[in-house]
Please model this.
Amino acid sequence: MIENRPVLDFITYLVLILGIIIIAFPIWVMFVGASHDGIRMLQVPIPLLPGDQFFQNLKETLLGSGLEGTSTAPVWLMLLNSLAMALSISIGKIAISLLSAFAIVYFRFPFKMFFFWMIFITLMLPVEVRILPTFEVVADLGMLNSYVGLSIPLIASATATFMFRQMFMTIPDELLESARLDGAGPMKFFFDFLIPLSRTNIAALFVVLFIYGWNQYLWPLLITTDRSKYTIVMSIKQMIEAAEQTPEWHIIMMTSLLAMLPPILVVLTMQKLFVKGLIESEK
Model:
């Protein structure tokens, strides 16, 4: 019999509500700041209720008319750059990881496990550790200020390869044998059997990798000098540190609000598959 403990329930809900308030309050302040003009945002205390300048600020931010002196591109262009980078990284990581895991599990070749552990060891070498040699390679290949340079060095993923390898190893050998009897070749087995069985894992990884690519700051800051290739995350910092100019906090708040929307939409759109991919395995 489960005891009814109203005090514990009250404490549980109280902690949850306090946690939500702590997380949501900065977002509310950002939304409020995006709805006021620049003069009001410089006054003390800061407003906590929405203003009437939201759509005006939205127009100025998207078109770039409110960004003079900040050395950044229009926000709509930065959003496209970040979207291109995030999609390239997430799709590229998933595609390469699926193929590498498929080769490691289902093909026999010399030093197979050696190559797998070489891939796995790269977990100890994040981009921040190898950033100088990576920059040298990208510069020598002429990929600075390009979408290719923004995404290619971040595409390889040992984590995703390991995850798909473990998932493929749980698939019964009888499925492979039946596919062979039906005349299915390796790639047909890969596309017709393994990909459908991995769709929840792919969805979960896509959400994580999209947010990872969207939030990249150091790498885009290092390889982009052309304003037309700036990403939204790196540009927010430049807006705050605009030389010889008071930060336009209403524009910065609106830019931050817009920068949050794509990851939120991805999470909400793929929420069911994301959760299912983390807690279940379809066989």
User: Anything to note?
Assistant: The chain has a mean pLDDT of 82. The chain has two domains: 6-63, 75-279. Residues 75-279 form a domain with the MetI-like fold fold (CATH 1.10.3720.10).
